[in-house]
Amino acid sequence: MTETVALQVEGMTCTGCEQRIGTALRRVDGVRDVVADHTSGRVQVRLELATTGPGAVVDRVTQAGYTVRSDGGPEEMKQR
Q: Which pLDDT score is estimated for 70?
């Protein structure tokens, strides 16, 4: 079963940032697809839920040097 997670990410300023986030997230087991858009600050990630969860996505984006904001904040994403 897959789920698409949409994140609002602060700090993406160019296509290089999109690529950096995309590369970092594709290295997470269970991530099937990543679409990052620096103009809107949005990142959409399709996950294989049996392998990983949204918390791993939030952690990886943070490790890459960006700040994640969602409707309920990063803590809500980690709890899903």
A: 67
